[in-house]
Each structure stands twice: as structure tokens, then as C-alpha cells.
Amino acid sequence: SWSIFEDRILYQLLVFLQPPSRHSFRLELFCGTHLPERCSNIRVVLECTCLRTMGNIPCFVHPSKNNETAQHSPLLQTLCTGSYLDVEEIACWVQNLVQTAWEHLPQWHDWQLTVLPSSNSCRMLLSGPSDMQLCAGLLFAVEQGSP
What we know:
Number of helices: 2
Number of domains: 1
Protein name: IPIL1 protein
Number of strands: 9
Organism: Phainopepla nitens (Phainopepla)
Shape: elongated
Oligomer: single chain
Structural class: alpha+beta
């Protein structure tokens, strides 16, 4: 969605998170009755790939013949707390990614990017040569019923 407020254009973008290969998201109901409002109830499940023909891709769940321990998931190590998605970690990761990518865009000399503090989304303010400012908010979601 978008709206105009005084000298600022506000954009809100819904970003659906998809699990990487060999992972799945499982939405756990809060008290078994209603859906949670926060990402802390989205469990990341590691999928077994032992019986799939995936070449030399190691299985996260079971140890390989050459390795005594199962492989570690980068997703669990960077964007999760325990086995659950951590919306604050996701927001911080996206904010850092946006800041790094911004300097590679041709517009970065004419526009100033300010990442606004937010613990559960990624909010950015763009200020350019005119008095108009652009404010974008990325909201993270997981589709219900997605694999």
C-alpha cells in the first residue's frame, strides 16, 4: 500500500518469506486456538534429504558417511532463536543487506538512505534533491498453508 502524508510518500510492502531448500516453516498455533501475531511461533524444520537424488548435497538431519555429525543450517544460525524464526534477527539482517546494496545503486549519490530503527520490520527513509521524502516499510510474513 502507499499513501501521501504532507511532504512524504509512505510505502508499505509485504514480503513473504520462503524457506530455503531442505527447510520448511511450520506455524504453531498459540494455545491451540488462534494464530499467533508474531514470528516467534514459526518453527524452522530441517528436512531429510537422504532418500532424494540431490547429488552431493549433505543432509541436515543425518550424519554422512564421511562426517560424524549432521550438517548445520545457516538459516538456523543467523535468522532464528533456537528452532524458531526471530523477526528481530530478520529485520536486522535485511536492514544490513539494504544498506550494503544501496551503495551499489547509481542513485546513491543523489539520494540519502536512512534505515530507521525498527525491531519487527525494515523501515527506510530516502531523502533526495527535492523536498519530497520516500519512506518504505518492509513487513515480513509467511503464507499460511505454504510448504
